[in-house]
Design brief:
Layout lengths: L27 H8 L18 H4 L3 H8 L4 H11 L8 H12 L5 H14 L21 H5 L21 H19 L6 H12 L4 H8 L9 H14 L6 H16 L9 H24 L9 H9 L5
Helix pairs in contact: 3-5, 4-5, 10-11, 11-12, 11-13, 12-13
C-alpha cells in the first residue's frame, strides 16, 4: 500500500462492500473529468469511483511502467503467476499490459498488488504465506504508485487537463491513474471489514481469465453433487453472471443437470413446476452454448477428445 500523508487517518484494513451499491461507479468520463481538475492542495477527492481505462487513452502505458522499472523481474514473475501468464524478462511490458487490462475497471487493486509483491519479497528465505499480513503494509517507497502518482509529480498539475483528450502522454496518464488508484483504495478501506476481504476480491480480479474459465473453475465434480436441484441453481447463477461462457465441460454439466431434473419430474403434479422452470432456463443456456460451440468449430473436423468420449459414456449411465 502506498504512503499517503493526507490519508494517515484511514485504517489499512477494511472494505466497503465491494460490488455493492455503496461503492458507486461514476463511469469512464467522470474518472477522466475528475482527475483533469486535480491539484496538490485544496482539492477534494471524489466521493464516487469507477473504472479508469488507461489503455484507451494511453496504449503506451505498459511500456512506460516497464521502463520506469519499479517492479523487479522477480516481482513481475509473481504478478504474472497471479495473472495466469508466463513471464519473459525480455518483454516486461506484456505483464503490465495484462495487469492493466485486469485492474483498470477496479484501480483499487493496484495497491493490493504492491502489498502482495512486498510480502513475497519479505518471504524469499522462508515459507510463503498465502495472504499478505495487513499489519506489515506500510509505506512502500520503491513501488510504482508512490513513485509515479501525481502527488509525487506536482509539476504535472498544469497538464492534467490533457486527460480529457483522445490520446494522453504516458507521464500524465500513468500519474493520474496511480493517483486515482490510491484514492480509490483509501475510499474502499474506510470501513472496518477484514483485510482478507480486500485481498480475496483483488486476487479474484487478478486471476480472472474470461467467462469460460471463471465458470469452469467454479463447477463441482458431478460425481460429488448430492442435490441436483440446488446445484442447478448454482450453475444458473454462474451462467447469468458470465453469459458468454461456452465449453464442452460446461455444456456437459448443463445437460446432466437437465437429465437429473427431468428424472425427478412427477407428471401432472404442481410440485414439479419449479423443476420445469429450471429445465427451461438450463435449456436456454444449453441452446445458446450449442450455437457458440458450433460457430467456433465450424469448418473444422474436431478430433474425439477424451472428454467427449467420457461424456458419451457418462450420458448412458443410470442416474
Amino acid at each position: 500500500m502506498p504512503d499517503d500523508s493526507n490519508q494517515a487517518s484511514h485504517p489499512v484494513v477494511g472494505l466497503t462492500n465491494l460490488g455493492s451499491d455503496e461503492v458507486s461507479f461514476a463511469g469512464v468520463a467522470a474518472a477522466f473529468q475528475t482527475m483533469s481538475t486535480w491539484k496538490p492542495e485544496h482539492w477534494e477527492s471524489p466521493k464516487e469511483f469507477g473504472g479508469f481505462p488507461i489503455l484507451e487513452i494511453c496504449p503506451e502505458a505498459p511500456a512506460y511502467f516497464a521502463e520506469a522499472g519499479y517492479f523487479t523481474n522477480q516481482d513481475l514473475r509473481v504478478i504474472a503467476g497471479y495473472l495466469g501468464n508466463d513471464f519473459n524478462p525480455n518483454f516486461p511490458e506484456d505483464v503490465y499490459e495484462t495487469l492493466l487490462e485486469r485492474i483498470q475497471d477496479t484501480p483499487w487493486v493496484f495497491p493490493i498488488v504492491e502489498t502482495i509483491v512486498t510480502q513475497r519479497r519479505g518471504n524469499r528465505k522462508g515459507p510463503r504465506t498465502r495472504k499478505p499480513n495487513a499489519k506489515k503494509t506500510g509505506a512502500i517507497m520503491r513501488m510504482p504508485l508512490i513513485k509515479l502518482r501525481l502527488d509525487s509529480h506536482c509539476e504535472l498539475t498544469d497538464r492534467v487537463d490533457e486527460l480529457t483528450e483522445a490520446h494522453v502522454d504516458p507521464i500524465v496518464a500513468v500519474a493520474a491513474f496511480c493517483e486515482y488508484a490510491v484514492m480509490n483504495y483509501y475510499h474502499i478501506t474506510e470501513d472496518t471489514e477484514p483485510f482478507e476481504n480486500i485481498y480475496e476480491r483483488a486476487v479474484a480480479i487478478l486471476s480472472y481469465q474470461g467467462p469460460t474459465h471463471h465458470v469452469v473453475t467454479h463447477l463441482q465434480d458431478p460425481q460429488l453433487v448430492e442435490d441436483w436441484f440446488k446445484y442447478s441453481y448454482e450453475i444458473l447463477d454462474l451462467l447469468y453472471d458470465e453469459e458468454e461462457a461456452a465449453s464442452e465441460v460446461i455444456l456437459y454439466q448443463v445437460h446432466l443437470s437437465i437429465q437429473h431434473l427431468a428424472s425427478q419430474l412427477i407428471p401432472g403434479m404442481p410440485a414439479s413446476a419449479e423443476h420445469v422452470r429450471l429445465i427451461s432456463k438450463l435449456s436456454y443456456y444449453a441452446d445458446k452454448m450449442h450455437g457458440s460451440l458450433s460457430e467456433e468449430h465450424s469448418g473444422t473436423q474436431r478430433p474425439v477428445s477424451k472428454l467427449s468420449a467420457w461424456i458419451s459414456t457418462a450420458s448412458r449411465r443410470p442416474l
